[in-house]
Batch of 2 targets.
Target 1
Amino acid sequence: MDEARRGFMKVALTAAAAVTQSANAHGQSSGHGQALPSDTALRVKSLESLLVEKGLVDRKAVDALIDTYEQKIGPRNGARVVARAWVDPAYKQRLLTNADAALGELGFGGLQGEHMVAVENNANVHNLVVCTLCSCYPWPVLGLPPVWYKSAPYRSRSVIDPRGMLRELGLDLPADVGVRVWDSTAELRYLVIPERPTGTEAFSEEQLAALVTRDSMIGVAKVSATSTGDRS
Ligand SMILES: [Co+2]
């Protein structure tokens, strides 16, 4: 990384931290991590424009950075947690009874994920996570929320017709499987422990983690022994 890039990263991270704190404070007063206050959004936009103008960063690089946190780095943390829960029943029990402590064992926690609850899918119950008011999401284990998670149709249909919505997303649940919908807030966020797919009995923890998708930890997909990736 050259000096200009290093300098940019420092500025960007400082700005991100300021935004996070601001959004977090806003969220705690309203119960939800609301969309950014407009003045903050404007300041971020100005900062980005300035950085682009000065040639310190191009928009594609910013988009790539966001994509990385949305798709790659973020959800890998949650995948490690799920894989550990699958191979270690005692860990799973701790995760289900005190998620914050169990996530802390693996080094995960902090901003936008201070209070977590883990919910487990099984043959009878399927869990689905939404934030009906805005976009509360467990950053330490899933990274940044995907665009569809923040969309009005997802937020409303998850509550009105979760089964129908899941079917449209390609997850057709049998009628005898109950669907539980969890509404996230700034104070409480959820991680779904998907079912371990059959045919993975001989898999290592690492191999299992590689199968776990972000979508399965939100509850809009299952995990298969041949991982299919996430919705964009
Ligand atoms: Co919210």
Target 2
Amino acid sequence: MARATTNAAAAPAPAQELSGPAQHGLELYRRMLVIRRFEETVQSLFQKGEVHGTTHLYIGEEAGAVGVGDVLKAQDRAAGTYRGHGHALGLGVDPQALLDEMLGRASGVCGGRAGSMNVIDLAHRLIGCFGIIGGSISAATGAALALRREDGVAVAFFGEGTTNHGYFHECLNFAAVRKLPVLYMCENNLYGEFTPWEDVTAGEIEARPRTLGIHTETIDGNDVWAVREAAGAAVERARAGEGPQFIQSMTYRFVGHSRSDPGAYRKPGELDRWKQRDPLLVARTKLTGELGVPPSGVDEVDAAVEAQIDAMIEAALAAPYPDPSLPVREFAPQAEHAP
Ligand SMILES: Cc1ncc(C[n+]2csc(CCOP(=O)(O)OP(=O)(O)O)c2C)c(N)n1
Ligand SMILES: [Mg+2]
């Protein structure tokens, strides 16, 4: 069922010669833009009835997944949440296969059976996306038990609201006792569904891992370079045997929690203020300033991603649905022998 990969790594480089950091920065920007356009596409196809179930978009938070994904090695693993399209793409999952999955097509990364919230792609280090909050924490903690024998590190992505759940406390304690190689990547977007985090959270989030002896850091989660630097150092400490690491990555989602949320709980001016710190804008500013990329170089990337997404939509809509008899054979072989 797999079709030829369209992984966005194939996008053309700008014509002029760029320095290593500029070239790399442009690639980080491109990956974030693929996530942004992918999510806008999912939203639009959802409204047209092409995407079923529900969706939770990562728009505004793209620097987190891209920054972390950029520092992982082949043997590492990561677990995402129901806001997991961005986590998957940041890890290198093929955007076409992911879009096909959203549309329930056979060429989807999970054969069209997972939909939006349960994507898994072991070939790209993704051990699952979890609709149950905290599921990513327990999955990554378990993976870390095995990975310490393979020089690998596991990453758990989760939101700040999840730090009030039992999984968080149990797993961090266990990981600290066992000194597991795991990075707990807490994406603090200020809200858990419709509730401001400070209304339901006692004390400082960072104090929780710190009291377990876990190295903690709070970073600007909208600056992909800041995420990359913090995640890179944390992952290497974990790999070196220093035990679990915790990052609180401050960010903001520009859209509702899920499809039916108009965001009425936002404080006045809050969204506009955060949009001035849009990860794409932050990256463009650094690229065209400090890193010396001409604006036309960034525009070329924009155009290439637009074209890529347009082609992806056409291909996804034309892709066949899975054979309805397949789930029985694939996932429950014993059912064939049931009376
Ligand atoms: C165990 C469990 N309880 C409740 C829910 C319902 N729920 C879905 S998302 C969410 C809020 C999570 O907020 P946060 O951890 O901050 O992540 P964000 O959605 O902001 O990325 C809740 C309570 C759930 N999915 N799983
Ligand atoms: Mg949140």
